[in-house]
Amino acid sequence: xxxxxxxxxxxxxxxxxxxxxxxxxxxxxxxxxxxxxxxxxxxxxxxxxxxxxxxxxxxxxxxxxxxxxxxxxxxxxxxxxxxxxxxxxxxxxxxxxxxxxxxxxxxxxxxxxxxxxxxxxxxxxxxxxxxxxxxxxxxxxxxxxxxxxxxxxxxxxxxxxxxxxxxxxxxxxxxxxxxxxxxxxxxxxxxxxxxxxxxxxxxxxxxxxxxxxxxxxxxxxxxxxxxxxxxxxxxxxxxxxxxxxxxxxxxxxxxxxxxxxxxxxxxxxxxxxxxxxxxxxxxxxxxxxxxxxxxxxxx
Length: 299
Known about the structure:
Elements: E1 9-16, H1 23-31, E2 49-54, E3 58-64, H2 75-87, E4 93-99, H3 105-111, E5 121-126, H4 137-147, E6 152-155, H5 164-172, H6 192-207, E7 217-225, E8 229-238, H7 241-248, H8 253-270, E9 273-282, H9 290-295
Parallel strand pairs: 1-3, 1-4, 4-5, 5-6, 8-9
Antiparallel strand pairs: 2-3, 7-8
Helix pairs in contact: 6-8
């Protein structure tokens, strides 16, 4: 039986924003664990992922959502946008993230998803470390409040760990008094298999060109594990034959580097030695193939 203090709070917090605004980096910083993969390329996050932080007086269940956008269209993007809309339902608090450099058209699209009658929407102005003068934030706060009646506005830097405790204190006000829903040592609802696939995809995103990453998916084919060693076999799926060579690289150099970087992170995740073998396979049009999306976990 759980024993919690009378004012212990627990609830779901949806974190939303346009692509590449820093949602995943913010959640990782708040939770203190790598819940979601990150890169400088848009649409890195594809799935709805929970990140859980338990403190002495609250349990925050963050819902990391894909970046909402309407510039491109595919079955995968439709599912990602629907995931954002669904995540806004039945949550106790919403944190919208924008950059300290100001509002962008993509931010306005996300703002259009919000109901102005809601009293639980917080604006997190991220990347304040990229703004030279702190005074520049004040006009942005004023402009933001004119756009939407945010319950609170908190300038933060997820990268530099600035004002994150302030943001947590503000969020806590909107969480209901409740026992925790997850065990204290839980930091995500995703399985190790999912996290490993995401780590491999992250390294591919970071090492490959701008055109290629969005057409990449990862499937774990085989997983063998003992107390001291995990043997993992995975496939990087691309949409075109020409992309296969780009992923493999000259003499297999690019694929080896992806595997090397991924293996290091996977060993940290699992706390043991890892043998990782990654292959590349072409599956044309998987981003518009409902059955392929289901197989790859995007259903």
